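Training component of the fellowship. As part of building independent skills, the fellow (R.M.) carried out the full modelling exercise for a liganded target. The chosen ligand was nicotinamide-adenine-dinucleotide. The inputs are recorded below so that the supervisory panel can assess the work.
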Amino acid sequence: MKVFDGKVVVVTGGGSGIGQACAQAFSDLGATVVALDLKFGGKQELSVEHRLTLDLTDESRVNAAFEAILSEYKKIDVLVNSCGIIHRATVIDTSLSDWNKVIAANLTSCFLTSRAALPSMVENGAGAIINISSGWGIAGGDRASAYCASKGGVVLLTKAMAVDYGKANIRINCVCPGDTDTPLLAQEASLVGSSIDRFRAAGASRPLGRIGKPDEVAQVVVFLASESSSFITGAVMPVDGGASAGTG
Ligand SMILES: NC(=O)c1ccc[n+]([C@@H]2O[C@H](COP(=O)([O-])OP(=O)(O)OC[C@H]3O[C@@H](n4cnc5c(N)ncnc54)[C@H](O)[C@@H]3O)[C@@H](O)[C@H]2O)c1
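Fellow's submitted model of the complex:
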């Protein structure tokens, strides 16, 4: 008997990085996992059987996907929102179109999927939502206005939903990763004229002396979805090797 046997877990951004690691971790623990993403790579290490390809910023596609999931599996026990994109620019250098894209992918997607999943969780009398924000959802970062605004929004969307749905026995928390070794981090490095190797090396300045691995974030997400965290809701948990604690 595995801990998540019989549970239905939906993971957005499940085709890559942290979302893929979450999907894998829940699948390893016996859950039926449905991964949602814009795309799934050819070399798919994910052993999750159920994948839906969609743009998570598209309201009607999101609603249709959740209707299909609920029609097939009858319930959603856990929703993990890991869908996201990176954008590095100051306010002056951010076009309205880029601003809207970042807010849509990082924040509106969480709103749309939560709104689609919550009614069935309320009906079941139980559920857990874990949103992936960022260290830059708590503190500002350079040349990242739209990204920070979107991730700060995820933090307070998490808290607001935790307040609204606690009495319905739905726990809603968020995880704030520091630099984690994923395709997004490599993309970010190139956006600022650096490289993933330099980003990895910069991890040496953090208390634990390195950047994170996707599975190290996934394990915290699993904890927040499990009964072990039964009295935790509205929490904002850094998973950053101590980066937010300070530097020595
Ligand atoms: N990697 C890091 O260092 C880091 C640090 C802090 C926070 N985060 C956050 O963690 C989450 C996961 O990031 P990651 O590093 O695994 O990135 P990733 O690029 O490996 O994975 C993100 C996934 O989201 C999907 N996605 C983006 N926009 C989408 C859309 N509109 N519809 C459907 N799917 C969409 C992408 O296709 C991709 O598969 C993101 O929200 C990111 O902001 C990452």
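The panel noted the following from the submitted structure. The chain is about 40% helix and 15% strand. The helical segments are 17-28, 59-73, 96-124, 145-165, 183-191, 196-202, 214-225.
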